[in-house]
Amino acid sequence: MENPKEHLAEHHMYRLINEELEQNPFSREMCTRFPPEPNGYLHIGSAYAIHTNYMIAQQYKGAFHLRFDDTNPLKEDIEFVHAIIEDIKWLGYDPKEHIYYGSDYAEEIYNAALSLIKQGKAYVCDLTPDELTKYRGTLMEPGRNSPYRERSAEENLELFEQMKNGAFPAGSKVLRAKINMASPNMNLRDPVLYRIIHAEHYRTKREWCIYPMYDFAHPIQDAIEGITYSLCSIEFKDHRPLYEWVLNELNIAEPPRQREFGRLSLTGVVTSKRFLRQLVEGGYVDGWDDPRLPTIRGLRRRGYTPESIRSFIEEIGSIRTQSTVDISLLDHFVRQDLKEKTVSVMAVMQPLKVVITNYPEDAAELLVIENNSENVELGTREVPFSKTIYIERDDFMEEPIKGFHRLIPGGEVRLKGAYFIRCEEVIKEPGTGEVVELRCTYDPATKSGTGFTGRKVKGTIHWVSADHCVKADVNLYEKLLLDEDTPKDSEDWTSKINPESLVHKKDVFMEAFVQDARAEEKFQFLRHGYFSVDRKHDTRVFNRIVPLKDSWKRSN
């Protein structure tokens, strides 16, 4: 086994595992797992957990398992299974043949429950859900023993078999572990191991009507698969004694070890499945893949790359407890990933017509423009230039403020990859005084790429030819929530949604270069940011991934 890579040496999980492996606790290879419940879509917080499990398996030349925690038929769906598999592979954490389902171990988990009953370590309890809560006690007061706690093993076996055979209604009985109702750890106060659910399972159909709780199924599933390290987020730390109790009482040799890492939170981002579902089902967003959501499908649709997400997680590094990271750090990494990969094209969001009066009528020429100023290997393209062009409205100012270096009356600018133009005349709408057209002249001697070394201008602006551009729609995104606090149950979502979180612009003028762009193909629109072709629409729609400005901060 090789030592962890140097840049991972400070990761507390690697240090912990290294120390434990020095005692040779396992005769099998490293094996980790990610166990999502298929009742929703993965989000950026899930990616951190996946990355941690996957990279540790890779580092120690072991295996990484994807195992669906599908033991609650009331919430789970095959749609989520397919989506989770697709998302994990897209992120770059392919489990290959190691895709498993907790429901496939139903017989083994049931037999484990029988073993505990026979040992006098589990019993069937008839308390109602409300009574269970009351008997459980509080953090300040111990719980009370159930009146059914001392049933004989024979009676418990008979009742549990009747539960399995569908003899009782849901909620009428549960199987509980017999541990310690006075334990300071609430998870050890005779936790529920099995409950009755009369519903069709997406895989096992009606074969079962009793289903194990996650805390019981989880360690058994890990043991069956030969998991060495069950790595999970910090909120499961108090569950670890129960995990170890189950494995110990079942006499599992070389039992898996549960170890915890910190939980990742992002500023201004909701990752709770419950709140995300409210946003989707309430129609506040365009489905689970809305580009404003932190779901992996939403991030992908917006245009984030798997490389940028992985770099973001690697930068965060080791989290011991709870860490809040500014979402703009993720934006930083997508910029870093795309800056040398994408073709820079010109798109005009708010067009202002410019007529070049001394350019020949009906003439056009092809100008050679670099595709990426930082990566010459992306080559060049030919961009049509003609007498009438469009520029951005805010690239012209009739009464310029101090520091404005773009086009003004009587002033010159360079057109990106083209010529100098001078504004000679401003045409306004008679009724409103709005500027509707500029009349300009161009200097043929200033053509880009010809070695012109004459007079200088301070400003360069982008443009498109009126006769050769194409139209497309653009979505501009800002943060979804007005503040960073997750709304309370009693609060109205409409008061929390940022009304500027999505600005849809129709008929944006763009270079014809983009007209054959494929879904998820990415570009840099000069001065506007990085954009991706929306994978959800048949018509051409570009989603802005991030603006060009790059600033971020980290807080803990």
Automatic annotation (TrEMBL):
Pfam families the record matches: tRNA-synt_1c, tRNA-synt_1c_C, tRNA-synt_1c_C2
EC number assigned by the record: 6.1.1.18
InterPro entries: Gln-tRNA-synth, Gln/Glu-tRNA_Ligase, Glu/Gln-tRNA-synth, Glu/Gln-tRNA-synth_Ib_cat-dom, Glu/Gln-tRNA-synth_Ib_codon-bd, Rbsml_bL25/Gln-tRNA_synth_N, Ribosomal_bL25/Gln-tRNA_synth, Rossmann-like_a/b/a_fold
UniProt GO BP: glutaminyl-tRNA aminoacylation
Superkingdom of the organism of origin: Bacteria
Gene Ontology molecular function, alphabetical: ATP binding; glutamine-tRNA ligase activity
Domain Glutamyl/glutaminyl-tRNA synthetase class Ib catalytic per the UniProt entry, residue ranges: 31-339
tRNA synthetases class I (E and Q) anti-codon binding domain residues: 460-534
Entries under PANTHER family matching the protein: GLUTAMATE--TRNA LIGASE, GLUTAMINE-TRNA LIGASE
Protein name according to UniProt: Glutamine--tRNA ligase
Organism annotation: Paenibacillus catalpae
Lineage of origin: Bacteria, Bacillati, Bacillota, Bacilli, Bacillales
